[in-house]
Structure formats: structure tokens, C-alpha cells
Amino acid sequence: MAGRTRRSPTLCGSCPLRKMPGYRPFSDTELAFVSEFKSGELEVQAGATVLVDGHDSPHVFTVLEGWAVRLKELEDGSRQIINFAFPGDLVGLQSSLFDQMQHTVEALTPMRLCVFERAGLWNLYRDQPGLGFDTTWLAAREELFVAQHLVQLGQRTARERIAYTIVYIFMRAKASGLAKSFEFDIPVTQKDMADLMGLSAVHTNKVLKQLEREGLLKWSRSMINITDLEGLRDIAGEMAEPAAARPFL
Amino acid sequence: MAGRTRRSPTLCGSCPLRKMPGYRPFSDTELAFVSEFKSGELEVQAGATVLVDGHDSPHVFTVLEGWAVRLKELEDGSRQIINFAFPGDLVGLQSSLFDQMQHTVEALTPMRLCVFERAGLWNLYRDQPGLGFDTTWLAAREELFVAQHLVQLGQRTARERIAYTIVYIFMRAKASGLAKSFEFDIPVTQKDMADLMGLSAVHTNKVLKQLEREGLLKWSRSMINITDLEGLRDIAGEMAEPAAARPFL
DNA sequence: CGTCTTTTTGACCATTTTCAATCAGTGTGG
DNA sequence: CCACACTGATTGAAAATGGTCAAAAAGACG
Fold first, then answer.
1. What value does the mean pLDDT of chain B take?
2. d(CA B115, CA A91)
3. From B93, B147, B148, residue closest to A140, measured CB to CB
4. Mean pLDDT, rounded, of chain A
5. Residue A12: burial class (beta carbons within 10 Å; 0-12, 13-18, 19+)
6. Angstrom distance (rounded) from CA A56 to CA A52
7. Is B70 helix (H, G, I), strand (E, B) or coil?
8. Which among A48, A53, A111, A112 has a CA at the least distance from the CA of A80?
9. Are residues B97 and A242, on separate chains, in Cβ contact within 8 Å?
10. Nearest residue to B70 via CA among A82, A140, A70
11. What is the DSSP letter of A9?
12. Nearest CA among B190, B139, B138, B185 for reference residue B165
């Protein structure tokens, strides 16, 4: 729960996400509502825990900057990453709907998150049906992504899963402005990738090295360079993503 | 897409689900809205395909009676079951939100589904914010279930996954009135269980037999008898479910 | 009954895990 | 600036969980 309120909160009117292509623009009344709804900004360091499994939170957040993971930790110490959270993604909705988080949210990079009072969520549905609709859209898209991950774990080989993960991360990072080209910062360890795809870190490394030998990618330190996206896509298989401009709060 | 309109559609006012414990009751205006929103009823046979992956559907459905599976079929013929759909569950929302289904929905038993026009969904958000909220609730719960499955596939052994699945099915079937006691009809083949938990049918069978030898359950034909729920729970591990009374449309 | 699907079992195989060690990169304090 | 510590990456060898193949048994259905 490390973090502090920021000195100069971003104004919704000049929200950097709204300028990005692929993000649905707001109407004036929506903008006014969200500006009012937003109660603050949370800034956390890399590695910080934003939300804790099993706990309640009075807030919902929208990622403004940075990457996070949503993950589940088991008693035996193993962990399963459920998905990443990128800018524009909502985190903590579970807490508002079910009174308690069912997973933990951890920052992979320094992050800034818009803070909303859970209590105000109801007003959103009442006053801004379009934003209510958007919230459902975001929740359903999240389900879609998790289901796609499930398909990988259930039916595909380690090689396919790894290729899928690379393409998935690239696609999402690109869409959220965190990757400008085929070479980009990836604040994800090989262990993280292993924990996402249900593999051991050792085997993940072996497969990655093999893909590297085949000239598909190059991963050094926290930088990845995708040298053959089409090749990776072929291995990865189907990668559905909603076409429409995505909403966000 | 087999199915036909039913002779005598169920009236929302006398919806059997509303009488079930654990289902959130409607207010009068909500009831009136949904009665109007409901445009028909779809009755299908066991094995019928309700919604097809990759296709668009002008409808959203609420399961009124019966079980379905939501699944993804791969090019190589393998399939991954994403989740079951029980009475009260919404299916086809993806089609309304993303213009196309990202999975197939198949009936496991004869089913009846309430039909809603996708075009009317927007009115629901506008006129009945509470129901809009409920729709988000349902979508988020679905994500929660899929994430729980993901954790099983990623981190747990075959034995644990099978025990988890049995308990999960029991819990959901009980809550939706499809299981009255520890012994109930289970219209799920061992292959289905395998396809849900990312295992082979052969290994699934071996594990099930082992659990049977240990006196935890008995599964003959399409009937399952849970003889030691606590034992299964111990193996299954954490089984989160939202406590609050669930909404439905 | 005869056919089809599903379940069951045994034998063998292999993808992936676990274990063990080394190496590389990064950060810290003296 | 260097020794030390720590985390993450890399590699090889051994072990194992779970998969594939094959075939028979048991239901289900017309």
C-alpha cells in the first residue's frame, strides 16, 4: 500500500489518455462528471502493492501511467498472474462489487492511478449511463483477455504460450502508448511470464532462448526487441481483441 | 442455432428464478422494464449451439433453465471450456459489446433462455441504472470465475483441479437449483471436465477413479454423488464466491 | 441387438518440472 | 572504486506429471 498523493493531479480535461488513438473520447458532460468523480491521484513505486487479495478497498482506480499485474498468490508460495493492467484499465472493481478483492494488484513500474470513491460509482450509473455501459465493457473485455489466457494454458504448448504472451504484451503495450516501436521497455521478468503462462521460470527461459536463436526476438535486461512479429504471430495463433475504440474512466 | 420459440413464454412476473434464495429480487419498475425488454424465449435441445464463435448476434440471453458451456475451439480440434452457464447467467454479452462472439455457447441439457434485443441494452442503462450496475456485476463475476479456473490450470496438479471442478460445479449447481442434494444429475462428460481443466480425458478418468477409491465421490453415468464434500474441498483449496445476493436480468 | 459414444485400464512416451550451479547485472556500503 | 550481496538469467541433468496410443468394457439409443 505504499504511495502518496501527488502534488499536481492530472486534470481530466487534459488527460493524456484522451489524446491517444483508440481511446473513446468523452462528451463534455461525461468529462465534467468524471472530473468530479475523480477524488485524487495515487502515485506508487515499482513493486508496490496497490490492492491486496482478500481486502476491501473504498476505491476504484484507473491506471493513468505505468504497468501493473493482477495476480493470485497461493499458500504454497506459487503465484498465478491473471493479467496485466495497462493505462486506461480499471483496477479494484471487484472490491466495489463483491466487497473484497479476489486478487492482488502490484505495480511493475512507477505508476499513477486516478482514484475514485467506490461510493460514487452508483452515481455514475445513475447520471451517466454511457459511462456505466463503458464500465461493463471494460469488465467484459477483461473477462475476454483472461479467457484467452485460459485457452493458452489449457491447450497450447510452452512454445506457443510464450509466443502468445510476447505478442499479447506488445499489442497491449502498443495500444496504450507504452511501446512506440518493436523495441520497448518490458518491466516483466521471465519469472513473471512463467507465472502468467503456468510454466516454470527455467523452461520459460529455455523456450525464449530458442525463439531468440530462431531470430524472432531479442530480450536483454528489461528491453525486448521483436524482430519478427509475423513469425511470433504464427506461433501464437489467434489473438482476438475488440476492434472498437476502447472506453476508460 | 437449433431452437424454436416456445409456446408459452415465462412471464417475468412469475420468473422461477426470482423465487430462489440467493437471487436479488426486482423492484416493480425493474420488473416492468425487464418484462418489456424481454423479446422472447429460446428453447433448445441438449447439444445445440446457442451462439457461435466469431459471429455476431442481435440478442443477449439469460439462462432460464438448463446448463450450457462457453467454449473455444481451436484449429487442431482441441477445445477449451471457459466456463459453464447456469440459470441466471447472461450469455452473449460479448456480441453486444464487441460486435462478435469470442467463444461458442453450447447447451449441455435442454434449455430455455430469455431473449433480449441487443439494441435495447442501451435503454437498460439509461432507464434502469440499477440493472446496468447488475450487468457489470455479472460480467465481473464471470471474470472472477474464469480467473479462478486460470489459477487452477496454471498452478495446481491434476488431482487438485479435478477436486476443484467437482466442488465448483456442485456449488454453482446448488446455488442455481440444479442440485438439490449431494447427489445430482451432471450433464458433463469426463471429456468436458478434461477440456475445462486442460487435461486429457484419460488422465481425468484416472484421477476421478482414484478419488472414488478414496471415497470422496461416486460418478456413474450422468449422476454424481459427492460423499465427502469436505475432503474434496480440502484438495480443491480456495473457492471464492461473491457473498451478496446475485442479480440477474 | 447393433452402433455409437463414453468410460476404463495398461503400457509407453515426452513435455515440462525440479534440482543444482554458474553467470550476469545492479545496488550498497566502506 | 571495489568487495559483497542480491536478484534474475542461463544451462545441464535427472525425475515426474500428465499425454498419447491402443483396446476393451459399459452404457446409451434407435
1. 94
2. 31
3. B93
4. 94
5. buried
6. 8
7. strand
8. A53
9. yes
10. A140
11. P
12. B190
Question: Does residue B97 come out as left (phi exceeding 0), alpha (psi in the -120 to 50 range) or beta?
Answer: alpha
Burial class (CB in 10 A: 0-12, 13-18, 19+), B217: buried
In chain B, which residue's Cα lies nearest the Cα of A53?
B240
pLDDT tens readout for residues A149-185: 999 999 999 999 999 999 999 999 999 999 999 999 9
The set of strand D positions with any atom below 7 Å of a protein CB reads 8-13, 17-22, 27-28
Residues in A 73-132 whose C-beta is less than 7 A from nucleic strand C are none
- In degrees and rounded to multiples of 5, residue A100 shows phi and psi of -170, 140
Residue with cell 471474470: B143
Mean pLDDT of B189-216: 98
Give me the A residues in range 149-188 that sit within 7 A (CB) of strand C.
Answer: 157-159
Contact B150 A242 (CB under 8 A): no
Residues A222, A186 contacting (CB under 8 angstroms): yes
B136 to chain A: which residues are within 8 Å by CB?
93, 97, 132, 135-136, 139
- Which alpha helices (H) appear in A99-176, and where do they start and end? 121-127, 129-155, 158-175
In this structure, which amino acid lies at residue B57?
A: S
What's the rounded Cα separation, in Å, for the pair A108 and A196? Answer: 14
Residue B37: partners with Cβ closer than 8 Å, 6 or more residues away:
B116, B117, B120, B123, B124, B249
What pLDDT, in 10s, does the model give residues A130-152?
Answer: 999 999 999 999 999 999 999 99
* 3-state SS, residue B114: strand
- Residue type at position A124: L
User: What nine digits make up the cell of A188?
Assistant: 516483466
From chain B, the residues in CB contact with A121 under 8 A are 133
A125 and B129: CB-CB below 8 Å? yes
- The DSSP annotation for A175-237 comes to HTTS-SSSEEE----HHHHHHHHT--HHHHHHHHHHHHHTTSEEEETTEEEES-HHHHHHHH-
Cell of residue B48, nine digits? 445445440
Q: Residue at minimal CA–C1' distance from D28?
A: B221
Query: Smallest CA–C1' separation from B197: which nucleotide?
Result: D18
For B26, B35, B51, B124, B125, the CA distances from B30, given in Å and listed in that order, are 6, 8, 27, 9, 12
pLDDT at B91: 98
pLDDT of residue A8: 67
Contact B139 A136 (CB under 8 A): yes
Out of B82, B103, B139, the one facing A139 most closely (by C-beta) is: B139
> How is residue A246 annotated by DSSP?
B
